Amino acid sequence: MDARILTLSSKGQISLPIAIRRNLNIDAGDKLAVYTSGDVVMLKVLRLPTAEEFSKTLDEAKEWADSVGYKESDVNNIIKSVRKKKRK
Of 49, 74, 47, nearest to 62 (Cα)? Predict the structure, then answer.
């Protein structure tokens, strides 16, 4: 694990040292998620799937839906059901 001391700017910004950016293979414009727990701050690099990865995942989801008998017309009812459960 690589640990560094960073300084917060007057604008609330931090700079990640080049060694950490290289190690994580991130560049300007890449997205990071920030998680906090008490006074601990964690960053996670967000990686969007490639078109090929997304297509593969979508195909797997379609195969699963077919295997359990779901049809495209069931999607709206499933979404409504999940949203209703979350509101409770």
Answer: 74
Q: How far apart are CA 72 and CA 78, in angstroms?
A: 10
Q: Tens digit of pLDDT for each residue in 43-57?
A: 999 988 899 999 999
- Other beta carbons within 10 angstroms of residue 71's beta carbon come to 8
Averaged pLDDT score across all residues of the chain: 92
Residues 22, 64, single domain; the answer is no
Q: Is the pLDDT of residue 2 over 90?
A: no
Give me the domain span that covers residue 59: 51-87
Question: Global pTM?
Answer: 0.54
* Number of structural domains the chain divides into: 2
d(C-alpha 7, C-alpha 15), whole Å = 8
